[in-house]
Write a structure and sequence with these properties.
Elements: E1 2-5, H1 13-21, H2 32-44, E2 49-53, E3 59-68, H3 81-94, E4 100-108, H4 117-131, E5 136-141, H5 154-157, H6 170-177, E6 181-194, H7 196-203, E7 211-213, E8 222-225, E9 230-241
Helix pairs in contact: 2-3
Organism: Paractinoplanes pyxinae
Protein name: N-acetyltransferase domain-containing protein
Length: 242
Amino acid sequence: MQIITRSNRPDLDEEAAEAFRERWPEFIFHDDVSKRHLERVRRWFGRFDVMALDDDGKVMAGGWGVPIAWDGTVGDLPDGYDGALVRAVEGHEAGRKPTALSFMAAAVGAAHDRRGLAGAVLGELKRRAYAEGLSHVVAPLRPTWKHRYPTVPMAEYATWARPDGLSIDPWIRTHQRMGAVVLGPARRSMVIAGTVAEWEQWTDMLFPATRDYVVPDALNLVHIDVEQDRGVYVEENLWVRH
């Protein structure tokens, strides 16, 4: 296995994108904050965007993060995924010195599950963060199984544990095994809005009435307002610190 910086192999962008897309629902890719900030993230923070390649040079996994200014307290954490993106970009533009790396996403191709690749990618990002002198590593996790319990608050879900004391959630467990501790919910981690027709397209569902809906792969309920022709999804994630 070889871990490389994604910016060094732009020819693999499409292959890497496929690995990420197969792990997330379509609506996740319609976050306006991401659309406004990701180009600058790629331009300035490419050293924190890595891929794991097999012996044939094929993409098996990838992950990325952004450096942010954080004072180490729970109260100073960003709102979540969107907030970390904004803080990283605006902080860089303002010349603020970052103190932490926030993992933003990691994905493993379905054909390469259960090989420890997510941990390897995150470990490489963690190594790079400390090599740059950053003091903290945090992450607004999107727990793998939370979509099965969309009405359960994240604060409660985060306490559900197996007999061995580790979380019932596979993604939280991955981070716990790397030494991470739970800090608390990121209650407005992502906000995704669209028309009713867009939400129907993104989810392959129909929304005939105004109400909150359970949507496949959504961690929380999606509010659809038919009269206003608007659907809004506020995703709650979970902050952990490594």
